[in-house]
């Protein structure tokens, strides 16, 4: 197969391309604008492979995209190119609307024109795989919130004489409590300019299937982590700041819950979806790893603290914190004013992809995080500049 990957120089796109070159026989064309978020070092190991090609291009460039499609003749398009950082979308949404919505529209139109001219057998095999996020669903009830609401609704406030009576009710309710998850049927309710722009692009992709018959598949995934992620994201930022002895910022009280998935597990899921998913279908991908942000940051600090100084990168001459000493990293955690509109909780029900495509994550959060911390220690030269 010829696979056109957009955004292949980013965090997930580069992991996907490394996987495709290492584990399949496919030809890969990476189409990427190389924004601040791209990290060409993440593709160093595939650059000399004859099955890998690269073209620097904006997905909004209609003529450029049409030319790449005509020359490369893709069987599958895997569309990852996007502006992806929520904080940046709040500070400046324009770029998010342009790339995520207009860029996806342009790619769909070029794909449709190219696909409509394909011979019948090639036409049937063609896939447009749109890679999206669980953030399109908005947020879910948080266990703390649910406890409070449930307790208040089940404890008659007129009869309840003290706070402790509410607490007792809450404890009883939490025994039978089952928190909801995002399914493929969950209604869209995006909160940030980023998630709204991704929601818009998801709708466009589904409309191009329904209206024009373009064979699309959509996947919505939870938070990824792993090698080569940009330092502006929570896990690399925490590792990097800890190693530099800089404050580790955490929004609010760090109680927001995210469902974490190791990037290579996501990439295997994407390959299942593009190769075996049914046209017109959506697949949620997630790792069943709901963690509060504070828990994640504390877990990283604990991993760094348990490492002997000799395990840390000898190329870094000085650590402001004494590595290996108890509590050195935890002391750097600093709570900062919460992000406006911050979603409380994300959690994915991945039962559809598990049951229909046989996908399962292979890393637990503990094993994936350990690998990730180790990788950042060993590869600091490959990380993005600050
Ligand atoms: P990233 O920001 O690391 O990489 C995005 C890549 O897209 C960069 O290489 C950038 O240069 C490229 N790009 C941006 N605008 C472009 C344009 N106009 N034309 C061509 N290329 C352009 O993003 P990521 O974390 O790797 O995410 C990839 C995709 O997966 C995104 O669509 C994102 O919404 C989705 N996603 C990400 C996560 C996550 O946790 N990171 C989770 C679920 C879904």
UniProtKB/TrEMBL annotation:
Cofactor: NAD(+)
Similarity section: Belongs to the NAD(P)-dependent epimerase/dehydratase family. dTDP-glucose dehydratase subfamily.
EC code(s) of this entry: 4.2.1.46
A single BP term in Gene Ontology: nucleotide-sugar metabolic process
InterPro entries, per the entry: dTDP_Gluc_deHydtase (IPR005888), NAD(P)-bd_dom (IPR016040), NAD(P)-bd_dom_sf (IPR036291), Sc_DH/Rdtase_CS (IPR020904)
Key words, A-Z: Lyase, NAD
Catalysed reactions, as listed in the record: dTDP-alpha-D-glucose = dTDP-4-dehydro-6-deoxy-alpha-D-glucose + H2O
CDD domains: dTDP_GD_SDR_e (cd05246)
Taxonomic lineage from the root: Bacteria, Pseudomonadati, Pseudomonadota, Gammaproteobacteria, Thiotrichales
Organism encoding this protein: Thiomicrospira aerophila AL3
GO molecular function (one): dTDP-glucose 4,6-dehydratase activity
Positions of the NAD(P)-binding domain: 4-142, 169-372
Protein name: dTDP-glucose 4,6-dehydratase
Broad EC category: lyase
